[in-house]
Specification:
Blueprint lengths: L3 H12 L5 E3 L6 E3 L38 H24 L7 H42 L4
Antiparallel strand pairs: 1-2
């Protein structure tokens, strides 16, 4: 279903009368065109060559560049996963003999978060470091071919 903005644009286009004309370059006169003379112009497609990727399979897929690691992104990720961790702990402790009080659930979740946040930052920094090294090798290798 079209949005309100799309409907308004379509109504506006249908409300106005359009007349297609051809301008004579020498005299500058306008000549009306018949609808039969109009052809939809399509730009010619250019064939793209597949660029080799650094992957094992060699498919020409462009990879998304990882962002540099930041604690704000790690904090957002931790805030997203903290409730999921708490729910997981609630269900796993509720089936144990101790029953799992709310205090133990909060403490267990906090301990998991204390491990999760630095580990998440470490993974981000490692992936960014590996990506930058690969980009440097790719840029270095593009100038001269190695044997």
């Amino acid at each position: 279903m079209p949005t309100r903005k799309q409907r308004r644009r379509r109504e506006k286009a249908q409300r106005h009368e359009w007349e297609y004309v051809e301008v004579d370059p020498e005299t500058g006169e306008e000549r009306p065109l018949d609808p039969a003379e109009l052809k939809p112009e399509r730009p010619e497609r250019k064939e793209r060559k597949a660029q080799p990727s650094g992957g094992k399979q060699g498919k020409g897929r462009a990879s998304r560049a990882p962002q540099p690691p930041s604690w704000t992104r790690v904090g957002k990720r931790t805030a997203l996963f903290a409730p999921l961790m708490a729910i997981f702990i609630y269900y796993t402790q509720s089936h144990s003999k101790s029953g799992g009080s709310s205090v133990s659930i909060v403490v267990s979740t906090a301990v998991l978060i204390l491990f999760f946040a630095p580990f998440s930052y470490l993974v981000d920094s490692l992936s960014y470091r590996v990506w930058t090294k690969r980009q440097a090798q790719r840029d270095e290798g593009s100038g001269s071919k190695k044997r």
